[in-house]
Amino acid sequence: MSKTSKFCQSCGMPMSKDPQGGGTEKDGTKSLKFCHWCYKDGEFLGGDTLEEFCENARKGMIASGDANRFMAWLYTRKIFLKNLERWKKS
């Protein structure tokens, strides 16, 4: 069994902040590594490349009111995200 991550291994958000308690695997079980905004039914959401993901995440945070432009930019810094499991191979 995989260890539960403290942070989403795609976007870096604390897993404790995910209102759905994580994304879902293909079989419907909860993901222990990825939040529901990044992972659904065993598939990644938000883009196939780190650049695409950062742009989509930044726009989504601003549009939803979850972050202002500066904070959205800060949260989607590639220098931090590139160290997460999803992006290490990129």
| Uncertain residue ranges | none
Largest sheet: 2 strands, antiparallel
Oligomer: single chain
Give the N-to-C terminal Cα separation. 25 Å
What is the count of β-strands? 2
Rg, please?
A: 13 Å
The number of domains is 1
Helix/strand order, N-terminal first:
EEHHHH
Which percent range describes the beta-strand content? under 5%
Overall mean pLDDT stands at 93
The helix fraction, in percent, is: 25-40%
Q: Choose one word for the global shape.
A: globular
- Tell me the structural class: mainly alpha
- The DSSP helix count reads 4
Q: Order the strands across the largest sheet as they lie in space.
A: 1-2
How would you describe what is shown here?
With 90 residues, the protein is mainly alpha-helical. The chain has one domain (15-88). Helices cover 33% and strands 4% of the residues. The protein has 4 helices and 2 strands, in the order E-E-H-H-H-H. It has helices at 50-64, 69-75, 78-81, 85-88, and strands at residues 39-40, 43-44. Strands 1-2 form a two-stranded antiparallel sheet. A hairpin with a 2-residue loop joins strand 1 and strand 2 (43-44). Helix 1 runs antiparallel to helix 2 (69-75).
Q: Can you lay out the helices and strands and say which pair or pack?
A:
Layout lengths: L38 E2 L2 E2 L5 H15 L4 H7 L2 H4 L3 H4 L2
Summarize the structure.
This protein is mainly α and 90 residues long. It has helices at residues 50-64, 69-75, 78-81, 85-88; strands spanning 39-40, 43-44. The longest helix has 15 residues, at 50-64.
